[in-house]
Amino acid sequence: MDSPLALYRRYRPETFAQVIGQDHVTGPLRNALQHDRVNHAYLFSGPRGCGKTTSARILARSLNCAQAPVADPCGECDSCGELATGGSGSIDVIEIDAASHGGVDDARDLREKAFFAPVRDRYKIYIIDEAHMVTTAGFNALLKLVEEPPPHLRFIFATTEPEKVLPTIRSRTHHYPFRLIPPRMLADYLVELCECESVSIEPAAVPLVVRAGGGSARDTLSVLDQLMGGAGPEGVTHSLATALLGFTPDTLLDDAIDAFAAADGAAVFGVVDKVIESGHDPRHFTEDLLRRLRDLVIVSAVPDAPVTGLIDVSHDQGDRLVAQAARFGASDLSRAADLVASGLTEMRGATAPRLLLELICARVLLPGADHTTDGVLARLDRLEKRASIVGSPDAPTPPPPTAPATPPAARVEPPPARAAEPPAREERPEPLMAAEPEPAAPHASPSTTGAIPEPTPEPTPAAPPQQVAAPAAAAEPASGPAGGLTLIDVRRLWPDIVEATKLRRRVAWMHLTQNSQVLALDGQVLTLGFTNAGARDSFVGGGCDEILRQAAIDVVGADWKIDAIVDPSAQPAPAPAGTRAAPPQPPEPAAAVPVDQSPSEAPDWARDDQPPVAPSPEKPAPEPTPPGRAQDPEAIAAAREAILATRTPGAEPSGDDPRKLADAAAHPDDPDADTNGLAGAELLQRTLGAEVIEEIPHT
């Protein structure tokens, strides 16, 4: 009993309608045959196994069909039967293998026989396969015959390398280039053949067969024939195709991709060890890994690629690809694919492929060692992915919908329910009212001298709108973007902004580092809280808000409107590292409260620093002046010198003092480096917002 023909021979097309993936060739040929406009010589070129020789035989059958001219052979006449699959062949159709008959003598013999008329059919047809193997002398011997053949002679050249055909021969033919068959069309064709052969095939195995065939119909059918021969009762399975065709199992590829995504070097090199121990070729594994990275790059750019068919994978594998692509950044994936592709090129002819594979994995795992742009972008991708997974400490956290978190700076006054309790020292609301003096309380007598009463437990009067609205805004969650920045971003960049103000005006820098804190960012309005009204007035009156606005434009590119308010709970931000902060203001000036000053006119620091005293509704008892305060001129002089020391170390220098000249020379663009002829008291009032209580000459 004869063995069955190979699968690619049993299912060889017999008409142009049965040829798949070559419509750009079969359509024009059928039209030419239908209208009897056939040329005397044709050149079919293209990759192997794509239908060149098969199409040449179909063309010969159509030319010699008894019903010619016809687009497709009838299949009933003697010529069609002899040239059909399994037929005996026709004496008027001669096939020549140019690989063994391409010399000049073979060409001369063909030329002598070609002038004889066909025995039975309409044309004598020569099909010259592998035409690029014909020598130059052989082509030159055929040149005149191909250029001016007798009426009954037709030539069909088939080759995989048309550029090697003699140009003078190629110019006298009609050239039809064949192409590789699209994978999707080839996959459908394989499923149809399996149904005809009554062999089941798993959907996951079909892409492997198509991939092994490389777009060639003959090669693909040969692979399918091999799998059908080795299939068991369950048919062609994915595991069978993976084992016989030498592909890397998906489990190894999944493990490798997951290890790369987690930057787990131990897992990556463990996968390499499994590849070697299981007997897989490192080159094939690298090629499969590159193909998987290619699929991930496409899925990263087009998330629905597995569904739309942009990549030919099964449904469950498509879900895995989408999940794996989400763990990488676009730059990280592109860099990994480039490294694997370069390593695959280096593996050709390498004597130690495993070593090269391990080096490739090491390069992919260490973007920090890559100082190119791709390495930097890969590191940024990993940082962004890591921050999105574990949560960045700088990222704004959306507040709960029912009870939004309140920043510490927004706690200006206690809730009304606790108004009767003694307020805590750090949350005392009285300094907030010191920005605009209020009339004296009814129980405070104007004639009271030196008495500083403690606020009564009655509810605190409502603060002016401009001082309450901004802290209330600060209580809102800082999650809304303002020009691309949130309140947390502004606080993170605040040291750089403050340092930029120092280059313009050091007084502004001193205010920002000692007396203020960022409270809120609402749209383009940046709210700053100052510890007292004097510092706030000095900051605004001296034009420091404009200096801060320009510094913010230079550092972060945001044009903010600066809103300065009084907030006693504001904690000044620390000065940037590497800078010398201004000396802190000493507490001694707080003692310089004159005895003839009413409590409502006392400075904030004086009223906020006093111990609680129970007031009398009829006549407040005067509090004895602590020793060393207003009656001590030496203490007042020491306090004044300490205040002056906050401007420059030591006492205030005179106009021609070398220290002052050196300071002005070091900061020629700082308008505050010079006193501008102001006296000490006026300078303190302008720069620090201080209020000089009494001028006592030095003794």
Q: Which features would summarize this protein structure in a list?
A:
GMP Synthetase, Chain A, domain 3, alpha/beta, five-stranded parallel sheet, 699 residues, 8 strands, Zinc Finger, Delta Prime, domain 3, Rossmann fold, 28 helices, 7% strand
Strand order, largest beta sheet:
2-3-4-1-5
CA radius of gyration is 46 Å
Task: Report the portion of residues in β strands.
Answer: 5-15%
- Supply the CATH superfamily name of the largest domain: DnaA, N-terminal domain
Q: If classified by CATH, what would the architecture of the largest domain be?
A: 2-Layer Sandwich
Distance between the termini: 134 Å
CATH fold naming of the largest domain: GMP Synthetase, Chain A, domain 3
Based on the structure, what is the oligomeric state of the protein chains?
Answer: single chain
Query: Unreliable segments (pLDDT under 50, ≥5 consecutive)?
Result: 389-483, 575-631, 647-677
Summing up helix and strand content along with how strands pair, one would put the structural category as: alpha/beta
Molecular shape: elongated
Overall number of domains: 3
Work out the number of β strands. Answer: 8
Instruction: State the share of residues found in helices, binned by percent.
Output: 40-55%
Mean pLDDT: 74
User: How large is the count of helical segments?
Assistant: 28
Largest sheet: 5 strands, parallel
The top level CATH class name of the largest domain? Alpha Beta
